[in-house]
Design brief:
With about 230 residues, this protein is α/β, with parallel strands linked by helices. It has six helices and ten strands, in the order βαβαβαβββαββββαα.
Amino acid sequence: MCICQTISVKYTEDYFPVIFVHGVSSTAAFFKGSRDFLMLKGYKASELYATTYGEGIYTKTFEEEIHCSYIRQIRRMIIAVHEYTQKKVDVITWSMGSPISRKAILGGNCTENNRYLGKSITTLVDTFISVGGVNYGVEWCSHQRHHNVCNLINSMNCECKLLKELNSKPERYEGSNSYSLYSLTDFIIGRQCCGQICGDLKHANQSLEIPNYNHLNIMTDTIIIQYNLLNH
């Protein structure tokens, strides 16, 4: 596990610590701009965290899956930051980082190997923000099931077992508050997934459509909106 910010002093700050979770073929370093912005707004380095799961830029996107190991890694991160700070955490996710984090918080059994994650850790999270998240999948997966990334168990296919589980719950479980930011011009995830907006988040306090953004700048250029949602 790679933790980008190392804690070396006793935690004394007032903000909830923020954990960033990247998408497929990305790394924790992707969030440096977000980190710098939040520090300008008064966050300390000891309040900002990220970790890299998977192979980063070496990931073969069409062969990727939402692995149990990724989910367990993010779950451990959330628990570790909470236990150190003795505070709830905020979670900002991008792309595939959203379903990974949602399952990490929900707990239960992993879909591909039935490994037990533990009970829900909803109470550890104050605000959950999904940005360009594949919450209902990616649109093109409905025609590309032969790729691992679109399998029917643990993938970005809206019909896969994992996403069906995440979207079947009767109430919010990602945290005390949840929000989604998405764009209908994000052609990486597309628009319609099993009759839903692909980037929408079920039971969110608010889902915000950001017009004319792509899959990259929906994350990088909405940091002011993300900051305001964190401090609602």
